[in-house]
Amino acid sequence: MMELFNHIGDIFGSGGFFEATLRIGVVFLLGTLGELICERAGVMNLGVEGIMVLGAMTGFTAVYLLGNLWLGVLLALLVGGLAGYVHGVFSVKLALNQHVTGIALTFLASGLAFFGYRLLTEHADVKTELPKIEPFDSVAIPLLSKIPGVGPVLFDQTPLAYLAFLLVPVTWYVLTRTPAGLALRTAGENPLCLESAGISSHRVRMCAVVVGSMLMGLAGAYLSTSYFNAFQPGIVSGRGWICVALVIFANWRAGRVLVGALLFAGVEAVAVRIQALGIDAPSQLFLMLPYVLTIVALVAVARRASYPAALLVPFRRGERV
Amino acid sequence: MSPALAVAAALLVSALLVVAAGAPVVASFEALIRGAFGSKFALLETLVVATPLIFTGLSVAIAFRARLYNIGAEGQLYAGALAAAAVATGKLGLPEGVLLPAALVGGFIGGGVVLAAPAMLKTHLHVDEVVTTLLLNFILLLVVSLVVLGPWKDPLFASASVPVLADAKLPRFTGTRLGYGIVLAGAAACLLWILIHRTGLGYRIQAIGSNRRAAEFHGISATRTILATALISGGLAGLAGTVQLLGSTYRLSEGLAIGYGYAGIVVALLARLHALGVLGAAVFFAAVKTGSDNLAREFAVPPAIADVIQGLALLFMLAALLLVNFRIRRK
């Protein structure tokens, strides 16, 4: 334990720690914002894990076969939206159990991803060498990136990372300051009220699930085109499920998603770095840390959690309440 | 009616994937069926895969009946295997005669405790159980990794524990890889059916699951019912790991039963949470898996097609139920 204290400087001191946190934080940020948009409209999307795998596969293979990074991102968004549409058809239009739909979707989407990956990279000899792409380069913002200390850490990111951080205020603004956001939140609080205002709850919920799932697809594409430069089976490895926890941690607020995503990413970065330092303690204990802390955090916020009132409640038009 | 419809629809859609993979459709499905049921060996292999799936399927079925959304059968499976391994490898120094029953009981308790914790968080502190049970999956897999690569490591193996003692092994049917775990699984399904449909606890579980408020007005304690459900559900998942350890792998490892816990969710839902239906659903799920492996060998169709078929079957099952429940009856 003392040894750990001696290494605190190594873990947090260098700029590398904050860079690593931001880099992995983007995945949680995009996935959690996507889940947040779905849940604020009253639809829990447990397909997030599968959609992220599918997005990662789509993004990667599109770039691998077509050679255009942005085309890969676009296709990942599209495929994510499509997966969201499937979720919506079952959970919103057919009013089926949202947990079950989401789990089925995770099976389906990750199955499709691994199936598609094997087919599309068939000619590549996967056994000897993993197919790789040239990932997104980081883009330094002129002037801002020259600020000593924070500049190189904050303002020298890949394009998708900037997009992710930009999406936080955008999501907040759209959800809380626009008519569309009001409709979306009402669909999650009281769909009947929305109907009485002449707006279709189903349509609003469908839109929310599709848009939210697009962000999940984007999170996957970020993993395979920016964070890594390849697609492998363990690429998402449960990060999608973490996003479901982070939404609760963030108490369904866009701003707090940023805090939650970066906190979790920070813990993950610490765990990886402690492991890399070769401190004489089992690495599994540190890898466990993020999950244990998430449970602790969930317990801490549980009392104050303000669930959208109609979360998990399907809306059936014309049904007596 | 609806399960058959759903399976047929799922196979129909996955035929598109077979076409995409450039394999002949009819011959591929023949290969799939042959791989699952075509020979005595194939059939037995399917049952070997089905054994732990029956347990995890039952685990999820009873939990979902009480609306305890247990997504953590995977973690409970590993917790059960961990506890059973502690007994069966002789770490506790129990006499040889009681090793097998003690390991089974230990596995049940190990799994039960791991679900009881998030269930208590749910009943007492209102912490959402979907997320906590899910996170525990990762934690328990790491605990198993810790033990298997650390104190219980077999020096001759890269990542497996020392083997269980001979007295703790579940016997196998002579000349096969199929252990008596399948008998235990069948017995568990029957017992669970009795529990759900013929006992007071089963009645309370169903009451809490269908209308918690009404059940509470009726004097049923939701807290106690949910905790009891959690112990049984977690215990059944723990038995999945125990049976896998004592009847199939004989060594604890991270790869003991990867994915079987999550698969239990699909199995339970395909069975419409019906205890005896779980038997059929688990065999179907296992058949898709062993069949797809054969499909991959014969026609180079990626084995991930199994996940696709299973996911589709579940979605179509839900849709089919809807059609059956809301069908127009003509007089």
Compose a concise summary of this entry:
The complex is a heterodimer of chains A (321) and B (331). Chain A is mainly alpha-helical.
List the helices and strands and how they pair.
The complex is a heterodimer of chains A (321) and B (331).
Chain A lengths: L1 H5 L1 H5 L2 H26 L7 H19 L2 H25 L4 H23 L18 E2 L9 H5 L1 E2 L1 H19 L1 H11 L1 H6 L4 H27 L11 H11 L4 H24 L5 H20 L19
Antiparallel strand pairs in A: 1-2
Helix pairs in contact in A: 3-8, 3-11, 3-12, 3-13, 4-5, 4-6, 4-11, 4-12, 5-6, 5-11, 8-9, 8-13, 9-11, 12-13, 12-14, 13-14
Chain B lengths: L1 H19 L4 H13 L2 H26 L7 H16 L10 H27 L3 H21 L31 H18 L1 H11 L1 H6 L4 H28 L10 H11 L4 H25 L5 H21 L6
Structure description:
The complex is a heterodimer of chains A (321) and B (331). Chain A has helices at residues 2-6, 8-12, 15-40, 48-66, 69-93, 98-120, 150-154, 159-177, 179-189, 191-196, 201-227, 239-249, 254-277, 283-302; strands spanning 139-140, 156-157. By secondary structure, chain A is mainly α. Chain A has a two-stranded antiparallel ribbon with strand order 1-2. Chain A starts with a helix and ends in a 19-residue tail after the last helix. Chain B has helices at 2-20, 25-37, 40-65, 73-88, 99-125, 129-149, 181-198, 200-210, 212-217, 222-249, 260-270, 275-299, 305-325. The model of chain B has no long low-confidence stretch (mean pLDDT 93). Chain A binds chain B through residues 46, 86, 90, 94, 96-97, 99-101, 103-115, 118-119, 238, 241-242, 244-245, 248, 282, 284-285, 287-288, 291-292, 294-295, 298-299, 302-303, 305, and chain B through 17, 20-21, 69, 71, 121, 125-128, 130-132, 134-139, 142-143, 145-146, 149-150, 262, 265-266, 269, 302, 304-312, 314-315, 318-319, 322.
